[in-house]
Write a structure and sequence with these properties.
By secondary structure, this protein is α+β, with helices and mostly antiparallel strands. The protein has ten helices and nine strands. The strands form two sheets. A six-stranded antiparallel beta sheet has the order 6-5-4-9-8-7, sandwiched between helices. It has a three-stranded antiparallel beta sheet with strand order 1-3-2.
């Protein structure tokens, strides 16, 4: 008979790593609980127990415990067969966003840029291997995936991601390219580490990045860095447009000057507020 402490379902998977080799400050159950929340997404709004277990690598027993705990805490709802997130999960990100000066400072500048160019504009930061949108002003929807604050995309395949990667040291970039999942998202996605490294170097030299239909077919985007008061790159700002309407040359001649000017205005406001 197994006890709760010895039940493999409690830890989720059979762990062969010696106990003394583990990080004593790492709470594995918290890590797995957060993994259950991250299993849900724009294209995975409703998941069965089996789907959650498969997405997280947990056993069904462990996934069930975490899901039912999240149900009791008000973060997840269940209809008896499938699970979905509840609005309360927004609390988990609100503490970060509420302490982030960038969206509030940038919002009027984004609105002015979008009104001028009639193209969508966003700001994102780097989080691990992905970019996370922290501010956005859309125009006509041009992507099949709806974008909002909190949306994530692989950094290597996005203009803002390339700008943020360009701010890394050589060692940091090498580690990113070694660890990240460089899967193609379209026929145009650059996935070769050497080519990506060269593209990022070019971004660092020219001060902006253009990505042509690498994230989604028909979508072009141009991005520039936003620097904080210490001079370091803290975020990236982009403008996205449909490839059938805006040529690569027009991205540089028509969109880039306004984008760079907006980035400078945001930087000036950040500096004045010590952000």
């Amino acid at each position: 008979m197994t006890t709760p402490e010895s039940d493999p379902g409690e830890s989720g998977t059979i762990d062969s790593e010696p106990a003394q080799a583990r990080d004593s400050d790492f709470v594995q159950s918290l890590d797995r609980g957060l993994a259950v929340i991250r299993a849900f997404g724009p294209d995975r709004e409703r998941l069965s127990l089996s789907e959650v277990a498969r997405a997280t690598g947990l056993t069904r027993a462990a996934a069930r415990r975490f899901l039912l705990t999240l149900v009791k805490l008000g973060y997840v709802r269940s209809d008896g067969r499938e699970f979905s997130l509840r609005p309360r999960v927004l609390e988990l990100g609100y503490a970060y966003l509420s302490g982030l000066a960038m969206p509030e400072i940038a919002a009027p500048h984004l609105e002015e840029l979008v009104a001028k160019l009639r193209e969508s504009s966003s700001i994102s930061v780097l989080d691990g291997h992905q970019i996370v949108y922290v501010a956005r002003v859309p125009t006509k929807r041009i992507m099949t995936v709806a974008i909002s604050v909190g949306t994530r995309f692989p950094a290597f395949a996005t203009s803002m991601g390339r700008v943020l990667l360009a701010a890394m040291s050589t060692e940091e970039l090498d580690k990113y390219l070694s660890d990240a999942n460089l899967e193609p998202l379209t026929a145009n996605t650059v996935t070769d580490p050497a080519k990506l490294k060269e593209a990022v170097r070019e971004v660092a030299l020219q001060g902006y990045a253009i990505v042509d239909q690498e994230l989604e077919e028909g979508l072009r985007a141009i991005a520039a860095p936003i620097r904080g008061s210490d001079g370091g790159v803290t975020a990236a700002i982009n403008v996205s447009a449909h490839a059938s309407r805006v040529s690569m040359e027009a991205m540089r001649t028509d969109l880039l000057p306004a984008l760079l000017d907006t980035a400078r205005q945001i930087e000036s406001d950040l500096k004045s507020q010590g952000a």
